[in-house]
Amino acid sequence: MKKRLPFRVWYYFRQGWALYFAFVLSAVNTLTVTYYLAIEKIPSLQTVFPSFAIYVIFAVLIGIPLLVLVGYIHFKKSPAYGSEQDVTQESFPYNYKLPPGWWREAVMPSFLEILRLNVKLLNKETLTDEEKKEIKDIQEKLEKLIDGGYVGHPKKPQW
Q1: What is the pTM of this model?
Q2: What is the pLDDT of residues 62-107, one digit of tens each?
């Protein structure tokens, strides 16, 4: 965990910066610069936007729906989002191994045990006490998951 801490901090920093700080700052900066350096200098635009507040209201009423449309096109209609997801999936380690938690502790052991039992049924074998105990353990884990509990050793939040 200590090796990964700087990368986690870097990730959280980038998210906070890009999604909150830079977003708000760039919106305010864009509105301010476009009004005071462009609109204020052009008399015909000055008649349409007589004050900065009117310009901001107009930009919000037009800009937000327009940006929602651009976001929709990005996710639903362009190949850009699919390409981003391809890169994410290729670099995600749990696409190549069993993830910890309920997959490793309950689901996959259940599948494995079902497979073993089917092989036994086909070979007409009986269950041992240890196999019955394994089945009971898996049942308890599945019941715990169904009730909303955890299995395995989940990471505790760092805050």
Answers
A1: 0.52
A2: 999 999 999 999 888 888 888 888 888 887 766 667 778 888 888 8
**Which residue's entry shows tokens 């196999």?**
131
How far apart, in whole angstroms, are the C-alpha atoms of residue 95 and residue 118? Answer: 27
DSSP assignments along 78-103, one per residue: SHHHHHHHHHHHHH-GGGSSPPTTHI
d(CA 78, CA 6): 34
Contact 69, 108 (CB under 8 A): no
Which residue has 């509990």 as its token pair?
149
Nearest to 113 by CA among 83, 78, 139: 139
Q: Which domain holds residue 123?
A: 98-146
| Domains of the chain: total | 2
Residue that terminates a domain, selected from 55, 74, 94: 94
Q: Hey, what are 115's tokens? A: 């497979």
